[in-house]
């Protein structure tokens, strides 16, 4: 499961659809509707906030909006609208790591998009995140981590 910290506008169609599905699964976990993924590290960001369900619904609304902007039709009944602002934290190191991870994926499955994104574009986070200084998050699975 990857709940991207990067803005959904950087994802290709496969990535956007996968993000939608995986975040809906995360929402079900937070609602207690599934037995799997209960302790997934990426969910901790949401679990730590005052209202995890509002946070995941707000996250989903941005993914939904990106899909609509591209002409895709995701089901808006799958999440609840949230009117109050919610901000979660992501470190710059995590954002950079995820962007580079995304570039690696895109280099194989969407070379044209890869070339557009590799040329020093600013790396915006998903709208729910505020970026703070710091390295890659400890929950991130990195094969070569000491």
List the helices and strands and how they pair.
Blueprint: H1 13-30, H2 44-47, H3 52-69, E1 88-91, H4 92-109, H5 111-117, E2 129-132
Parallel strand pairs: 1-2
Helix pairs in contact: 1-3, 4-5
Give start-end ranges of low-pLDDT stretches: none
Please report which band the strand proportion falls in: under 5%, 5-15%, 15-25%, 25-35%, 35-45% or over 45%: 5-15%
Which of globular, elongated, flat, extended, rod-shaped describes the shape? globular
Q: What value does the Rg take, in angstroms?
A: 15 Å
Instruction: State the separation between the terminal residues, measured CA to CA.
Output: 23 Å
Strand order of the largest sheet: 1-2
Plain-language structure description:
The structure is a single chain. The protein is 45% helix and 5% strand. It is built from five helices and two strands. It has one domain. It has a two-stranded parallel ribbon.
């Amino acid at each position: 499961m990857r709940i991207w910290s990067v803005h959904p506008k950087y994802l290709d169609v496969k990535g956007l659809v996968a993000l939608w599905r995986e975040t809906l699964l995360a929402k079900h976990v937070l609602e207690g509707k599934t037995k799997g993924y209960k302790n997934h590290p990426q969910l901790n960001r949401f679990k730590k906030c005052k209202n995890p369900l509002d946070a995941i619904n707000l996250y989903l609304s941005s993914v939904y909006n990106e899909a609509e902007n591209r002409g895709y039709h995701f089901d808006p009944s799958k999440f609840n609208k949230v009117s109050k602002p919610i901000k979660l934290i992501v470190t710059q190191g995590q954002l950079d790591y995820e962007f580079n991870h995304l570039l690696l994926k895109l280099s194989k499955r969407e070379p044209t998009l890869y070339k557009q994104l590799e040329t020093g574009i600013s790396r915006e986070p998903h709208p729910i995140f505020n970026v703070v200084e710091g390295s890659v998050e400890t929950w991130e699975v990195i094969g070569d981590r000491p």
